[in-house]
Amino acid sequence: MTTFKLPDLGEGLPEAEIVAWHVSEGDTVKVDDLLVSVETAKAVVEVPSPISGVVKRLYAAPGDVVQTGAPLVEFEEAGGAAAAGERPSARPATGEQDTAREAPRADAGSVVGSVQASDEVLEETAIAGGRRRRERGRVKAAPAVRAQAKRLGIDLAEVEPTGKNGQVTLADLEAFRAKTAAAPAPAARPAAPRQPAAPSATAGETRTLRGPHRAMAQSMTRSRDEVALCTIFDDADIHEWLDKRDFTPRILRAVAAGCAAEPALNGFFDPETLSHKMESRVDIAMAVDTEQGLIVPVIRNVERMGLDEIRAAVARLKEATRNRTVAPEEMLNYTITVSNFGMLAGRYATPLMVPPTVAILGTGKLQHDVVAVMGGIEVHRRIPLSLSFDHRCITGGEACRFLAAVIADLEKPQ
User: Fold this and answer.
1) Contact (Cβ atoms closer than 8 angstroms) between residue 49 and residue 36
2) What is the widest separation between alpha-carbon atoms in the chain?
């Protein structure tokens, strides 16, 4: 027997929730067959089988939270029955060697990236999350193709396969992507009346925190216990903006400008060694509110981007986040955070950063304020800003210089 433990999903998270099993006890599986969909605080991850064999025991049920390294599945490896002196029913009676026997493997379940892979064709039978089955038949694709399709946000059922035995290939994905990009945009429809968002909880409900909600509880507890929090507030006057709607890309560009002016806020603090590391890369975590909770994807190297590039990156990540197709690696190793809570409500706030980062910029609801100008008063549009920082390593002067640079960039016409 071989026990497969919940692998380290590469996110630094200690646990995951079982979303759906794709096998049952007694099933025979091969290397790379999909075993289970699990939900971490950040994404839904499909876990493949590291070995070929028979599933003897499933250690958890859908909805259970399993610790990393805890038993997940017990297998009887292919050839195991013969090794025990039993005669498999499918074994030829001619005395031939049992070709199904496999060489012993080291435990491949410690890290997802180390799970043994193969080039065999897999039939995709479940959508990420495992909560519903495909209705248009099974799709044949190798693991690398399935992973690439997920990263690109492509439904494999929509792709015309050209590979052997109806297999979808990487070339098919690229052809589908090019065809989709070249297709004319559908005619614009009149905007439907905006409906209020459904509440995330029900009155009288008692819920166990899971997924993003559970991660938020853990992160905010750590923030409360470790950070010497300080917040400063100000407003950016955007009355001169030429594009009146380009909020998020302009805010991200302004944060990069703030990091260039005052690098101290772009980096990490280690309380054990009392060391403050300042990064040259500006990788901004962008908090996105979803029905499942707060998800925080990362836009990399914003300091190298123009507004068009930032705009495209924001659109892609927002869509991937809301569809829960954002890859785990797209939510790691950020250097500073932005929270645009003003899209919902609120002028100022005290946003909390997650250690080891040292700063977070919150943007409030756009305001029309009366401002004094030479010779009188005018009504200008202004963005309320709330900058929280870790006062253990960031001085008030550094925070103010950062915020001043952010405001100066935001107040440019374009």
Assistant:
1) no
2) 104
Listing DSSP states for 72-109 in one string gives EEEEEETTHHHHTT---TTS-TT----TT---------
Q: Are strands 2-5 and 71-77 parallel, antiparallel or unpaired?
A: antiparallel
CB atoms within 10 A of CB 199: 8
Banded pLDDT at 291 (limits 50, 70, 90): low
List the structure tokens of 139. Answer: 């799709």
Measured in residues, the chain has a length of 414
pLDDT higher than threshold 80 for residue 14 = no
* 122-178 and 1-83+105-118 share a CATH fold: no
Pick from 400, 383, 392: nearest CA to 268: 392
H-state helical runs in 227-304: 247-261
- pLDDT-wise least confident of 59-68, 103-112, 204-213, 348-357: 103-112
Instruction: Give the type of residue at 379.
Output: V
pLDDT in tens, 167-219: 788 778 878 887 776 655 445 445 444 445 555 667 777 877 776 677 777 77
Domain at 122-178, CATH class: few secondary structures
pLDDT tens column, 269-285: 999 999 999 999 999 99
Written out in words, the top-level CATH class of the domain with range 229-410 is alpha beta
Q: Residue range 93-119: average pLDDT?
A: 39
- If one counts every other C-beta atom within 10 angstroms of the C-beta of residue 106, the result is 9
pLDDT at position 200 is 61
Give dist(CA 19, CA 280) in Å, integer: 39
Rounded to 5°, the CA angle 86-88-94 comes to 105
CATH architecture of the domain with range 1-83+105-118: Beta Barrel (2.40)
Q: Which residue has the tokens 């955007």?
A: 238
Specify whether the CB–CB gap between 212 and 295 falls below 8 A: yes
Q: How many angstroms from the chain centroid is the CA of residue 195?
A: 26
Range in 26-30, 200-204, 264-268, 343-347 the model is least confident about: 200-204
* SS3 label, residue 339: strand
Domain positions in the chain are 1-83+105-118, 122-178, 229-410
Place of tokens 């016409």: 413
The two three-digit tokens of residue 365, written as one number: 């609801």
Listed residue (150, 149, 140) closest to 119, CA to CA: 140
| Residue 44 per-residue DSSP state | E
List, in sequence order, the alpha helices (H) in 262-343: 307-322
Higher pLDDT, 344 or 368: 368
